[in-house]
Structure formats: C-alpha cells, structure tokens
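#structure-requests
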Amino acid sequence: MVDQSARNIIVTLAKIGLAVAAFAWLLTQIDVGEAVALLGRLNATVLAAVLAVSVLGLLGRFYTWQATAAPIERVSLRGAGSVALVVNFINQLLPSRLTGRVAAPFVLRSRLGLSYPDATAVSGVHTALYSVYYGLAASVGLALAFDRLSPGLILVLALSTALYIAAGVFLLAAGTNLSRLDPLLDWFARLANRLPRIGASVAEQIRGLSAFAETSTDAFRKIALSPGVWLRYAAGWSLTLLVAAGVRVWLLLGSFGAELEPAVFIPLYLVAAYSVTLLPLTPGGIGVTEATATAVFVALGVPGEVIVPIVLIDRAMGIYLPALAGWYPSLHLDLSTLSTE
C-alpha cells in the first residue's frame, strides 16, 4: 500500500501535471506568432490604463479586509493591504481559494494583532461574503452566456458557482452559531476528565475551545449582521472583480481589434469563467482557470489568439503579480503568533 506522504506527493504531482497540460492546451488554441504580434501592438496609453485599473482593483481588495475588520478594530488601508497580499500569496500555493483562507487568522493575528477569536471571525466573514457575492455574480454571468456554452462548460461552471453560494451560506450559518457546540464540547470535557493523570488538563483545553467559540461567535455576529459591512465589502469586491477586471479586459479587447457586446456583461462573464478556482484541481487554479476562461470567451465569439493573451494578462495583473507581492510581507509573519496563548 502507498503511505499517506507518498499519496500526497502523487496527488500534488498530478495537480501540477494538470496545470501544465491545461497551459499546453491553451497553446494549441492559438497562433503563437499572431498572439505575440498582438502583444507587440499594445501602446503605452493602453498599458498605462491597464496598470491604473489594476492598482485600483488592488485597493478594492485591500478595502474588503478593512471593511470586514472595522466592527472589531480600526485598521489602516496599508495594514489591510498587507493581510490581503499575504493571504493571496498563500492562496496560490494551495489547491482552492477557500482552503487558502485557513491561514488567514494567523495572518490577521501577526499583521494586525487581533486575538484568535476576533481574527477567526474576521477571516470567516470575509470568506463568506466573498463566496456569496462571487456565487451570485457568477450565476448571473452563467445565465447570460448559457445559450452559447457547451453542456460540459455549463456543468463545470454551474457546479463551481453552486459551491461558492453553498460555502458562503454555510460559513455564515456556522459562524453565527458556533456557541451551539457548547453541549458537545462539555460532554467531551467530562469524558476527557476521566482519563488518568492527563484528564484534567485535556478537559481544561476542551473547555477553552468553548470559550473560544463563544467569543468568536460574538465577533462573527457583530461583523456579519452589520449592513454597513455588507455594503462596504460589496463596494470593494465590485471594484476588484467587476470594475477593474472588466475594464482591463475591455481595454485589451479593443486594443487587439476585437469586441464583445454588450461590454457591460464582460465582468460577469469573467467572474463566471474564473469560478473554477474554487474547485481543488490545481494549486491556485493555475492553468485550469485560464483554459476554462479561454473556452468560455471563444464560445462567446472572441478569437482564441486574442483571448488567450488577454486572459493571461488579466490573471497576471489581478492575481499572480499581487500574489508575488505578498511573498515579501509573508517573510515577516510573526511565527510566535502560532501560539494560542
């Protein structure tokens, strides 16, 4: 039998292989020379505009963390930006956006000094709101493109979109009701207390989880039940994933002599096409996301040699470069915060 460590290595290699295969497939869909020629025709004005909207989108991402933490503690945009960059960096190392958020409480504690219960609440609400808004926007995008997509694409996008909504609803329900675990934790504590020698210590640790759950639930409710948080988060989220991404792709389409009408739908198509990042197929969805987005936009009538470089630029400006920027602040995480004391 294959032991667990070997199995993990095999799975990781398989996911990396899938990412490489997806990129290889992309190259078969285009005339590489034509794509390079298109990139060479980008003028300085378009490049400057793409950079400007990308910076604006990054600020929107920062603002979502600032808005979520506000009911607990006032956070500067710079501090929120540090958290956003590090979490994004970690997300690209792990197979799904939601799994990457597991590290967010440690990042919040290290970068902003929040307690673990508060950091867990801020991270949980941020992830829940991201999931809900993403799922709703992707649903609209999928509905708008439905009659032009293949059954296979529809199935994949519908699955990932439904998972986003389900994850958001589950996190909101669980986060506001963690205190309901108290009877179960109390039962485990009484059971542990019967253990010889270590029973009292183990029981104390379990009862500590109950106090943690109560504090975290209070903080979660304070954030999640605030209409202002939902509105401010929606503003930052929309700026990042709708306005900045949509304008960026629209500018590049125009520069490459292509169009997709009505242009106002482009952001919703993008959100739907990128929704596969939630599926744990490759680290950070790399490769598979670009391939899926290419398939979606080709189905919508954009030539492959045009949309492939656009998708790569969009992903680089919106995800990969910010993730790379998060590498440096990640080096300065205070590892002593891994202690829960």
